[in-house]
Amino acid sequence: MDTFDNKKRSWIMAQVKSSGARSTEQRFLAILREHHITGWRRNYPLPGKPDFVFPKARVAIFVDGCFWHGHPARCRMPEANREYWEKKIQRNVERDKAVTRALRKRSWKVLRIWEHKVADTTTLRRLRRVLELGDS
pTM (2 decimals)? Predict the structure, then answer.
């Protein structure tokens, strides 16, 4: 059982700032640089706060953590307070879908990359295809 009421728990969770994702984003950034892929921006003002945005190509990229974004096979729910975490992750999944729909409605291409796939060769191919760079 949670020791805080919903309002207090929400405030506590809002104070938690992501830092673990930085290493995943740094790996993705290294791949962009290694393959000389340019034109991206960080902290671009779009719904959902994409991790990387290519404004000219109108491409928004999200590097999603397997736990926080509910990967079907890799999201391992904690045993403690399981109901809370299931609801939390499900809300995140629904929010991700809504953000993707909203951006696509505004004519943006959206690429979601799971954290465990950041360095995968298929990710680079998907990125090149969505940016219309071709393979090289």
Answer: 0.81
